Amino acid sequence: MENPGYCSGSFDGLHHPSDDDDDDMVDIAGATLDFSSTDDVPPLNRDFAAGMNGNGPAKLVDPLEDPVPGLGTYEDFNTIDWVREKSKDRDRHREITKKSRQSTVALLHSVSDAFSGWLLMLLVGLMSGALAGGIDIAAHWLTDMKDGVCLIGFWFNHEHCCWTSNETTFQERDRCPQWQSWGELITGTSEGAFAYIMNYLMYIFWALLFSFLAVTLVRAFAPYACGSGIPEIKTILSGFIIRGYLGKWTLIIKTITLVLAVSSGLSLGKEGPLVHVACCCANILCHLFTKYRKNEAKRREVLSAAAAVGVSVAFGAPIGGVLFSLEEVSYYFPLKTLWRSFFAALVAAFTLRSINPFGNSRLVLFYVEFHAPWHLVELAPFVLLGIFGGLWGALFIKANIAWCRIRKSTRLGHYPVTEVLVVAALTALLAYPNSYTRMSGAELISELFNDCSLLDSSQLCGYKQVSNSLADRPAGEGLYTALWQLALALIFKMMITVITFGMKVPSGLFIPSMAVGAIAGRLLGVGMEQLAYYNHDWLIFKGWCSPGADCITPGLYAMVGAAACLGGVTRMTVSLVVIMFELTGGLEYIVPLMAATMTSKWVADAFGREGIYEAHIRLNGYPFLEPKEEFEHSSLAVDVMRPRRSDPALAVLTQEGMTVGEVETLVESTHYSGFPVVVSQESQRLVGFVLRRDLLISIGQNHILICVSHFNVNPQLPSDNAPEAPPPLRLRGIMDLSPFTVTDHTPMDITVDIFRKLGLRQCLVTHNGRLLGIITKKDILKHMAQIANRDPDSILFN
Amino acid sequence: MENPGYCSGSFDGLHHPSDDDDDDMVDIAGATLDFSSTDDVPPLNRDFAAGMNGNGPAKLVDPLEDPVPGLGTYEDFNTIDWVREKSKDRDRHREITKKSRQSTVALLHSVSDAFSGWLLMLLVGLMSGALAGGIDIAAHWLTDMKDGVCLIGFWFNHEHCCWTSNETTFQERDRCPQWQSWGELITGTSEGAFAYIMNYLMYIFWALLFSFLAVTLVRAFAPYACGSGIPEIKTILSGFIIRGYLGKWTLIIKTITLVLAVSSGLSLGKEGPLVHVACCCANILCHLFTKYRKNEAKRREVLSAAAAVGVSVAFGAPIGGVLFSLEEVSYYFPLKTLWRSFFAALVAAFTLRSINPFGNSRLVLFYVEFHAPWHLVELAPFVLLGIFGGLWGALFIKANIAWCRIRKSTRLGHYPVTEVLVVAALTALLAYPNSYTRMSGAELISELFNDCSLLDSSQLCGYKQVSNSLADRPAGEGLYTALWQLALALIFKMMITVITFGMKVPSGLFIPSMAVGAIAGRLLGVGMEQLAYYNHDWLIFKGWCSPGADCITPGLYAMVGAAACLGGVTRMTVSLVVIMFELTGGLEYIVPLMAATMTSKWVADAFGREGIYEAHIRLNGYPFLEPKEEFEHSSLAVDVMRPRRSDPALAVLTQEGMTVGEVETLVESTHYSGFPVVVSQESQRLVGFVLRRDLLISIGQNHILICVSHFNVNPQLPSDNAPEAPPPLRLRGIMDLSPFTVTDHTPMDITVDIFRKLGLRQCLVTHNGRLLGIITKKDILKHMAQIANRDPDSILFN
To answer: Keyword annotations for this protein (chains A, B) (predicted)?
Structure first.
């Protein structure tokens, strides 16, 4: 099944969940239901029910085993029931604790169960760290391959190739005879127009080859491997099921194609996809432990930690990674997960460091070291960068979503391979002549963050040498050239990223967004520096920027700009500042970063409150209930529930007086995924809730006469009489006797809060104790879409 | 009213909430109720109700104003209703947004309302930072006062006194003629036994004076100022009301007495109380903004941020502070609060730094810089330190709680002043002869964390000089003396802290716990160092610790030990590691810290799952529903609800057929804090819930005939008839038409989850749509106490 997501572009060959599977999505004149809780009936009660049946002596139902296969599982593209999953886990844990008092083996089992979470975290950290290291090394090698080849062995990258050479000096570390550019190899000389053209052509050739391989592999083996994966992971963590999205094929193909896509020179990064890779690792490793394999809620705790691991290895920022998971990705993040995420993030960071893919023992992606402090006056340009970042973020989201809509609705979506090849060719063609676009995004950012030392030979440090100090210097020829190139690079990056993000290759947004911001920041920084140099006597510079002092650090501006743009696109706040703090390691620069990030978020929010990930979630119609946004409207539960006033009455099962035939007819004649059970049609007093899926499984399994009159279970209560005939065991087990209810007068803001906090899928609505209707997560999302004047039918899945 | 908390020791003069105020805590043969939601009825509905009454045209109820004074407020020692408070705020916000479209003034009001949160955070940060700076400076001065006096001005502390002197060299910075010890001043010489005895006596005199002043001020003006305050703040943040606990008197007295208590040399720290001080600042500043003054839930968001600010200024660790608030203190911590806490924590940290109380421009309390990396083999001693920390933590909690119980139950509690004086005298008497106990806790930790440089003249660095390098050296005479003194100091600190924490003076636990761990760690560190020095050839040292290498850093062991002990006592995990990380600034040392903290937590948890703060909450019987612990038992809602089977039936109001007289009789004859409203006594179908307090206020306010038959409100529903006579407005407004319900079969683990996540105070229990009973937060806490074999009546408040 292909990914119905944005990066598929079109729905060619897509098995839409509702195409042939009416149970999955039912929406005819009534409530659209998910499959709901069955195991909420606690063991105590189940035991009691089991003991009541006439088939034999009381039988303990073991929560460690599934009594009926399929019961209590979910279909693809459906939402899980958090309450039931957590309750299931608690039952399991209770059972293990109870058993552990009985034998030593059981005690050991209980201990190993308690530590399995930590072991799993360790494995996730090790595997993700190792994979990230591998990806770094491979991408580095393939990126260099576009330029040339190492004569002493093609498997060396440029840097390693020259390490082995003795002829290089420290100054010219990256030039050595062993490394030959393609032009040199073909024409025999590294000079001249012909060599340049050959290099250019080879650059385009490799870019096309890599991107073709990437898109073909993705299409052939793992359509889910495309894109950054963060929107889908957010949706999955909120409780949605997308089978195969975190599977082994996705992992393998995403790892390989990520390397290819990054090396092809397309304007994309590997940071977002690394989160997907880490989540795949976690999901696969979950299969080793029953506790996590069988419980969707527990598995999502591990996935939350894996998201932290992904950012930890992407930026070498474990604390920032944990906060990223907490702030941006996770839905349910208990404190236990916080602690475990932190552990896994550290393990991954140290694994990556011991692999040492950058060859410098550095944990972080961009190591930054500034010498001069910043001055309060500089807050003005930092806020300016924040405004730029916010505007760019808002513009980028609008443009990218518009482009993705075009891809979805026009024939463009039918040619994903052609699209990738055209964009790759365009990128290579335009990028090669400009050295700042030719280098990889990470290299570019690294260079822009860099503070110019005295010996620095790069173009960006092409100042006129006036004295032998690090003080502010006038810009020289080299720097002016660099500024022009940077300005062109800025425009190019801004345009190309819009059409690149969303193509059918793995593509992250962090690096391209940061690159745009870093370029803008560096330009402003150099501008400020020159302004200060030539106008020491201006009021704003007086007192802190005297002649011969080192007052403005353009690298800091680049960093602030990068944070602002990334903040504008993703709307990250704390985690972004902490990631940047971990890059510099000093609290000094937090205030500029914070000022820019805050401004950026406010400016961008003024144009639309959604970040790029939420926008893509909405574009794809995933059933995601945003935990950050407040529900502002003043409607009541009765306004949102189904059936509406004009609809036919709610289809219910009654506790008494219904035959098996009637039940079967009801199930067959309707498409609802679940049915409330009431005392009688007249009273409409609610007893419980039963799922269509479980009902069908039970009928199929048992082939026995169903006597619905014995749905009623608990004879301890004085108001009810104990059943007289032996009740059918299975149907008792599947009825949820504790369905969630709200009254019809409950304001929707409270109802939405309940859905979010408890992770519900549906909730019954009552009035004066009588069943009135039902609200599902999808009803809420549709209602919210309606309020926001969007198409309520854009919510696709359950 | 005095604090009924642990640091009061006894309940002398205590106004117990249930002494004269039966509404507050009622527990007679039925449910114990809090005051519940009234404003949950949304404006739409209220407008409708208002429009229905015959007194005039439809009147809009403005949620920005309280219609009836007292309605919707809480009494002291009661629990707030989070759902209602948040709903109130959303109504308010909705109203402002609606109005902002009408005029420019309203628009400006809306904008200023949106930014008031940020302004408040800025003010909290500035005020807390300034106060923390003041406390640091004053405590430093008073601590030095115990030793001697500055001749050129008594207001200089030792360091400042000698700064003004020109005669000091860098080496002997802390010796100058201007600074005279008391012995020197009195006897004329700094040498000799007489001078020593005079110093000793003066030391004890000042200690007694300071501690006497501290305890007297606390008793006379602000009994809530004692203790660390963190248990109470945790309880308040979970939704409890303790009036005056965060008031201006508490702030003033706590600030003053904190300085006195710290200076008196008692074994206590200022870090915990700083959290209380920051929360007081936040609470007082909340009064400037209607949004926060009038809403208990919004105010708690600010208090959560203030807790982060407290730790930020205590350790100079803003990120650690935010995580501390998230992990340890807060109950409701939305993402918005995360972001604002971070901002406030940063502002506070920078305010403190610009005050520069330590005179070194350092943000952090202990600046640490290590040179040598650690080796994997060293994880074994680090884990050992973790075990020590865990054992000490568990032991400390047990001993301290036992001691507090003795204080509570015996006559000891009646003499808090004497107790403080005796402990202060004992501390001074025993501490003075040993230089490591004589210095303040923070100084001691700083010295223990310190890595010995070559020129270091302190006793702890009394190694034999064998070469001119930083390599491992054999221990010399000085070091051996230091080790003995440290061992004695360890025993002394362990004993004295147990009886100090809980006295009627402000007292924090962070520094004493860390001191114990740092001493143990340094001892182990020096031991390891000497072992490695003399046994380079042992298998475990081979390969990484050759002769002449600097392989073991005793300061790192001290730091790991400090983290382990603090972790054992408080059970902090991530936040502790991050605070320590912010002290060193390097990711390098996170792994040792993590290993020790994890071990410490596991070991301590094996002896009891509660940290010291939870233990004190339980000791004081606060109604605190621990969010971290899972509810393990398999009971059902029906087992916990009131009335029990043997109790008389639940007192309910009926929708029809009740006269005002009957209502008044019911209210007067029972003591319940609220009454469910049902359709009729026969059907017991639930309509809503009304609070005793609101009922009484409404009856008193209106002096009109109450026609309870018109409780029924919504004529839109087909099943009910519209009321015919004009209904009384007030009673409509006070009935909560959307009370929370669960069915009798709902497992308690799910019910507890609902209470925690939604912040409920009570929940009605139904069976087949009929009202069966009620569960309050207190019922749950009592049930949990019963399961844990504790006295259920230890839960004191509502």
So the answer is: CBS domain, Chloride, Endosome, Ion transport, Membrane, Transmembrane, Transmembrane helix, Transport
Question: Cβ of A747 and B738 within 8 Å?
Answer: yes
- Give the β-pairing of A674-678 and A686-691: antiparallel
Structure confidence by residue, pLDDT tens digits, B307-348: 999 999 998 888 899 999 998 888 888 888 888 999 999 999
Greater model confidence, B573 or A697: B573
Cis ω before A643 (30° cut-off from 0)? yes
What is the end-to-end Cα distance of chain A in Å, rounded? 17
A746 φ/ψ angles, rounded to the nearest 5 degrees: -65, 125
CATH class of A116-146+192-355: mainly alpha
CATH architecture of B376-619: Orthogonal Bundle (1.10)
The two three-digit tokens of residue B178, written as one number: 């201007």
The pLDDT-based confidence of B43 (bands split at 50, 70, 90) is very low
Among the listed residues A774, A740, A751, the one whose alpha carbon sits nearest the alpha carbon of residue A670: A774
Question: Which of B84, B90, B332, B755 to probe by mutation at the A interface, max A CB count within 10 Å?
Answer: B90
CATH architecture designation of domain A382-415+441-463+474-620: Orthogonal Bundle (1.10)
Q: For domain A637-794, which CATH number applies: 3.40.50.150, 3.10.580.10, 3.40.50.1010, 2.60.120.10?
A: 3.10.580.10
State the virtual CA torsion across B101, B105, B106, B109 in degrees, nearest 10: 130
CB-CB contact of B568 with B390 (8 Å): yes
Contacts of B41 in chain A (CB under 8 A): 745
The distance from CA B440 to its chain's CA centroid, rounded to whole angstroms, is: 23
What ipTM goes with this model? Answer: 0.82
User: Chain B window 31-70: which residues touch A at a Cβ cutoff of 8 Å?
Assistant: 40-45
CA distance B737 to chain A (A): 6
Query: pLDDT tens, B514-557?
Result: 999 999 999 999 999 899 888 888 888 887 887 777 788 899 99
| Amino acid letter, B257 | T
Say which amino acid occupies A124.
V
Chain segment B372-424, per-residue pLDDT in tens:
788 888 999 999 999 999 999 999 999 999 999 999 888 888 899 999 999 99
State whether the Cα torsion A186-A191-A194-A197 is positive or negative: positive
Domain boundaries, chain B: 1-75+624-798, 376-619
| Distinct helix (H) and strand (E) counts, chain A | 29, 8
Backbone φ, ψ for residue B691 (5° rounding): -95, 140
Find the angle CA(B633)-CA(B637)-CA(B642) to the nearest 5 degrees: 120
- How confident is the model at residue A37, as a pLDDT? 33
Q: A251-263: per-residue pLDDT in tens?
A: 999 999 999 999 9
Name the closest residue on chain A to residue B589, using Cα atoms: A346
Higher pLDDT, B635 or B490: B490
Query: Closest approach of chain B CAs to the CA of A585, in angstroms?
Result: 6
Report the pLDDT value the prediction gives residue B793, as an integer from 0 to 100: 79
**B99 in contact with A at a CB cutoff of 8 Å?**
no
Domain A116-146+192-355 shares a fold with domain A382-415+441-463+474-620? yes
Q: Name the pTM for this structure.
A: 0.85
- Phi, psi at residue A413, to the nearest 5°? -65, -15
Give the sheet arrangement for strand B686-691, strand by strand.
B653-654, B674-678, B686-691
CA–CA dist A404, A502 (Å, integer): 7
Residue among A341, A342, A347 nearest A305 (CA): A341
Q: Kindly state the tokens that stand for A587.
A: 């609290």
B1-75+624-798 folds as CBS-domain (3.10.580)
Residue A469 has what pLDDT?
Answer: 67
> What size, in residues, is chain B?
798
Length of chain A measured in residues: 798
